[in-house]
Amino acid sequence: MNADVGSTKYFDSVSFECAIPSSGCGRSYNAGSECPTLWCEKGQGAQSPSRGAESIADIRIGPEEKLSQWQTEVQALEDSQQIDACVQAQVRCVALARLVYGDIHLKLAQAHARLAQCYLQLKGLPLQAQEHAAKAQAIIPFCSPEAAGEEKAEVQECYFTVYYTQGKSALLLGKLEEAEVNLEKADLVFGELQQVEGNRKQTEFDIATTLSRLYRHQGCPGKALCQCERALKLHEGPHAACAVYKDMATIEEEQGQPNAAVQYLLKAYSLVQEVTPGGLEEADICYSLAVAYSKSQDPKYLDRAASFFQQSLSIYSRCLRPGDPLTLSVQDKYCRVLLLSGQQERAMKILKESVSLKKSTFGDLSAEVADSLQLIGGVQMTQGEMMQAYRTMSKCLEVQSLLYGPQHKKTRVIQQTVDLLSKAPEVAGRHHKADRMKHRPPFSAVVPSHLPAGAALSPSDSEHLKKNI
């Protein structure tokens, strides 16, 4: 979606003559061109899936009533997850709000703020969201600065939407200082809104989790954990609590505290088992637990890591298609844990089975296939199978040379391993024998092949052989 769609540039190519008494703000447009509302009616804007072909009577509906219809339509499209149609419908709302209320009105600011929300939450486009949020922010100060009561609450609500959208967009773009300023403003405005409108737990929960992620990216784990604790007091369901516990585990893990991370993940694990056992959410938490246990310095935790890896793989294999990239990635980590715990045969079986799946998923010449070959070759080396290791590592070298080139550091490491393996007695002896076979004298083609073993040559055959020698 173009960032200019829904902005004031929406009318650059559309001009007409009309005045709108209801807004108290007449707008002049060039004669001979069509109304933006009619421009949208002719198919240039979003088409409601529930409307079909619009009648002439529907076209004659005033822009204010039309705006109300499309605002309702936006919510219906969002509820039905029709993302593109929802964004296009909100673009129409921006155009109609400007047509009805003029360039400087709270309704236009609200339309821009809502469009910014759509771009961020539905489309994941932070740049477009920031542009429309900035337009809304520029309009709000001119909208009844001394408003009171319900109108003041609407102004505050619009400010909150603008600050919160700008903060989340800046966080996605890596602009941490800008994100902090806007999110803290949003939190402050939200506190004022609560005094007017009462308790709004879900919105405050969203603010707390977003601030937690911001402080985590800023390297402030203490502040991040405080926001997580705040979010835990506001959550309205076990799924939200699981998400918070996972965030807290991530913060602890980044601080080099795997044991603390495990405790938070175990809380999430107990919650998800009560609500949706055997689902993908449980598989994700089991995988996180397995990774956390594998990072612990205590060797006894390796068995627990292997158990959680196995549990997550069981769910992924059942819920996802064969050869899914996530399943294959978890398998690789599981095999490394098995190798650390001395279960080489089991690890080798899984690794060899995964090679064919990786080839069908990623292609023969892929980094994933090269990684598996390197791991298999390393296991074969530890088992003393030098010839098999040499062959496996040579295949790995061939793939990495084509992927990265001969001078890449990964390729050079494998090349050194292959050179080292080539000096092993088993491999060197096989190569020496092969070289002797290459340089041996050719067999004489003039010896009759029909003679039985041990039979003497006839005088004529002997004479013929002497002439050819």
From TrEMBL:
It comes from the Eukaryota. InterPro entries: TPR-like_helical_dom_sf, TPR_rpt, TTC23/TTC23L. This is Tetratricopeptide repeat domain 23. The lineage of its organism: Eukaryota, Metazoa, Chordata, Craniata, Vertebrata.
